[in-house]
Amino acid sequence: MASVAGPDLGQDGRRFSPAYPVVLSAFSGDWTDAARRYRTWAIHQPWCSRGPLYVRDDIPVWLLENGLWVWNRGPSHKVLPGTRRIQEVVQAPVALDWYWWHATPYDTHFPDYLPPREGAEVFRKAVDDLHAAGLRAIVYINGRLWGKSAPSWRAKQAERAACRRENGEIYRELYNVFDSRRAEMAPMCPATALWQTTLSDLVAEVLARYGLDGVYLDQIGHTQAEMCHAPQHGHPAGGGNYWCNGYRTLMEETRRTAQAHPPPGGDSRQPILPTEGSCEAYLDLFDAFLVLDNSYERMGFYDKLDLNWESVPLFAAVYHDYAFISVPTRRSHRRPTMTSGPAAGPCSFTAFPRTRFCRCFLC
Ligand SMILES: [Zn+2]
User: Fold this and answer.
1) How far away, in angstroms, is 323 Cα from ligand 1 center?
2) Computed from CA positions of residues 84, 205, 49, 314, in that sequence, does the dihedral angle turn out positive or negative?
């Protein structure tokens, strides 16, 4: 075990003392015992300040009552029929998390999502049709990346707000390997005003135009902080807490702007803003968390890295009454996990099932 604190990396002769205590303890037991001990401290921290789910009055009723999330992507004529059919089959409230609803290619041109791939009118009608059928819908955007081929990259001089390595180079990430010429993207520094306003303005615009029930912001709760050395960003080089604080500022503003655009239908509470992963420092800033670790296990990611790991629902064990958790309904290849229904155990009541319903070259 190691803990490294370096608020100003690369600057010799600086002394640093953390402003917080670190407590270590030995105990006998398994991970559930560790979760119980950690919880006694965790639920009194600022990220639990909104209280447990059962006392909060800011959660949309439909989110509380939703029975299944459907995960799909593509044009409305491919997405809507299957979603309606699933609702008929499960006989419960269903919500759609809609990916690749935008005209730009898949995983390449973030944050240039507008207009929708079928045009504004068709997309708005599709959302209205979902609502008329008693369904709910949110759309995907990425919360961390800016595509270097996106027109806005040059127009907004986005390189100013990109995370930079110690040698000044911009970090690079590639997800769409089928379009690598246009798919390179850069993780953005959340401490910069440009990334903060770009994301909060985008969420507000999407909600205002299309009457959606929320916006999913990918990767924010899941991905590690980049060590940003950009001198013009106003944060310590490489280390410090600018990443977490930057995203807290960004999401507080995004939540404020989202509240001005409640979805139609009489439920006047704010649109939902879920993210990927299970990051406790953002517990009060997102309305739900899409946890994929059991998928990583099933798909053999840990085996490929020669890691004899097994997913356990540790986050849910600590925060089960403080966080909505959405998990894919796929069985572990090793043994049933919390996503497998009755085997889920005591953590399952806030772990809403989610199913993927698409068939394309990326699946
Ligand atoms: Zn930075």
Assistant:
1) 29
2) positive
